[in-house]
Amino acid sequence: MSRRDLHDVAVVGGGVVGAACALELAELGLDVCLVEAARPPAWSSAQPDLRVYALASDNVALLETLGAWTPVREARAQPYRRMRVWDAAGGDPISFDADALARTELGWIVEHGLLVDALWQALPRSRIRLACPARVEALEQDAAGVQLRLDDGTRVAARLAIAADGAASPLRRLAGIAAEAHDYAQQGIVGYVQVERPHEATAWQRFLPTGPLALLPWTDGTCSIVWTLPNDEAARVLALDDAAFARAITTAFDARLGTLRPTSRRVAFPLQRQLAATQHAGRVLVIGDAAHAVHPLAGQGVNLGLRDVSALRDSVREAQRRRVAWDASHRLARWARARRSENTVAAYAFDGINRLFSNDAIAPTLLRGHLLGLAGRMPPLVDLFRRRAAGG
């Protein structure tokens, strides 16, 4: 390849994290190529995406710099001002409020499809080369850079490749990076329900022996649900007709928002914890779900991925300010250590919470409600949780 054919960065994967990464690095003046297997469908307000994110304020700020947040907010985004968490076994609830942080909201509920669409709408305004549809079939790398062979026979050469191609990440495997996975034997059921009482711009979560049930405010009178259940129970609940499902979820939520009635189809996805052994191997970095898949009970999956992007942006920007190599091996390794440390702590923290609350053993059942209530009465701990939820 001639020097003019050498990109600074090849980002593989055009989902939320990959597209945001490509745009952010292009904003810093890097020559970026984005490789994606399929162009995402255009978002339609008439067909709401069942997959939603609880975006923290730091990641909203990131999207604002990319010009992607305003179209999302104007199309359909629901702010949430409070979080309420309680356990079916008893004890006091724990609450987080935006007022305590002097903010207008803790975060925003946004559909996956809308966010991806907004990021892709921003791509033509950048200088990013788009290789789509294309899949990576082979990787070669040395100390100077990488070369990707795509399934159409073309090659992409770059100083650095970034794997943002999902939990099954082909590029991560090609780079020889192992990933440790733990199957929770649980499914997350998602859909939308009509609520009888106002949702109060509040993200609600009730811990049950079978797993947490979250109701996230979406539009007036409607919430998005994420209901974690063991595999067999999830299959049973999915098979219920709408009337039976309404009774089941209303009971599971203790009728906190009155009767809940489904307004959409329901789907389930398997839950697992997965962590890449490293987020850096030679000239390949790994971000987002390719690096870390966590339990959805805290709604932090996409937030962690976007924080990978923010940290990489800060590293490149600092190198540019100091006029040193932004892709120096020691700099990439430092970024990878910091991100893997934070992501590992988060993954195992969510894992521990899920293990403590998602069972009906006598000892955890007797303790957990009281522990939750105790946490709610410890200001430093509440402040830590609150700021983490809001991205502070």
UniProtKB/TrEMBL annotation:
Pathway: Cofactor biosynthesis; ubiquinone biosynthesis. It holds the Pfam family FAD_binding_3. SUPFAM superfamilies: FAD/NAD(P)-binding domain. Residues 8-312 form the FAD-binding domain. Keywords: FAD, Flavoprotein, Monooxygenase, Oxidoreductase. InterPro entries: FAD-bd (IPR002938), FAD/NAD-bd_sf (IPR036188), Ubi_Hdrlase_CS (IPR018168), UbiH/COQ6 (IPR010971), UbiH/COQ6_monooxygenase (IPR051205). GO terms for molecular function: 2-octaprenyl-6-methoxyphenol hydroxylase activity; FAD binding. The keyword Oxidoreductase applies. Its cofactor is FAD. Gene3D superfamilies: FAD/NAD(P)-binding domain (3.50.50.60). Belongs to the UbiH/COQ6 family. PANTHER family: 2-OCTAPRENYL-6-METHOXYPHENOL HYDROXYLASE (PTHR43876:SF8), UBIQUINONE BIOSYNTHESIS MONOOXYGENASE COQ6, MITOCHONDRIAL (PTHR43876). This is FAD-dependent oxidoreductase.
